[in-house]
Amino acid sequence: MTQDIWLNLPVKDLAKSAAFFTEIGFTRNPGPGNSEHSASFTIGDKKVVLMLFVQEMFSGFTSNGLCDTSKGTEVLFSLGATSREQVNDMAHRVTLAGGTIFAEPKESNGFMYGCGFCDPDGHRWNMLFMDLSKIPK
């Protein structure tokens, strides 16, 4: 089985996208994943790697066209939160960093609390806190 996972995303403006992910709390990785065409980040305690690539480079190694994120969703990345406050904080950070909230923080199904947002390139993310003590038995 594999040991790691990398999320690879195409971006229009590498500097803008790198600043966004830094501002919402992702950790910039030092080293070889960073160039004029790419940026590397770590997400969370499990240290999932997020790689940003300028669109031309991304489509070159995928041998496929890019999704128009203004018209469709190619994927939804979900981030686990430790509290409702962490969800609210992420929504605030995203707004300040120039992202778009598409689902305001709210409760769902009696045990989940989350929000949904788009990064500057329209990729969709959500942050979700699950109160396991409230899950129906």
Structural class: alpha/beta
Low-confidence stretches: none
Name the helix and strand elements from N-terminus to C-terminus, one letter apiece: EHEEEHEHEEE
CATH superfamily of the largest domain: 2,3-Dihydroxybiphenyl 1,2-Dioxygenase, domain 1
Number of helices: 3
Distance between the termini: 33 Å
Mean pLDDT: 94
The gyration radius over C-alpha positions equals 16 Å
Report the oligomer. single chain
**Silhouette:** globular
Task: Identify the CATH class of the largest domain.
Answer: Alpha Beta
Describe this structure in words.
The protein has helices spanning 14-23, 55-62, 84-97, and strands at 6-11, 27-28, 38-43, 48-54, 76-80, 100-108, 112-118, 124-130. Strand 6 and strand 7 (112-118) form a beta hairpin. The longest helix is centred in the middle third of the chain and has 14 residues, at 84-97. It has 2 domains: 1-60, Roll (2,3-Dihydroxybiphenyl 1,2-Dioxygenase, domain 1), CATH 3.10.180.10; 73-137, 2,3-Dihydroxybiphenyl 1,2-Dioxygenase, domain 1. It is an alpha/beta fold and 137 residues long.
What's the short version?
With 137 residues, this protein is an alpha/beta fold. It has 3 helices and 8 strands; from the N terminus they run βαβββαβαβββ. The radius of gyration is 16 Å and the shape is globular.
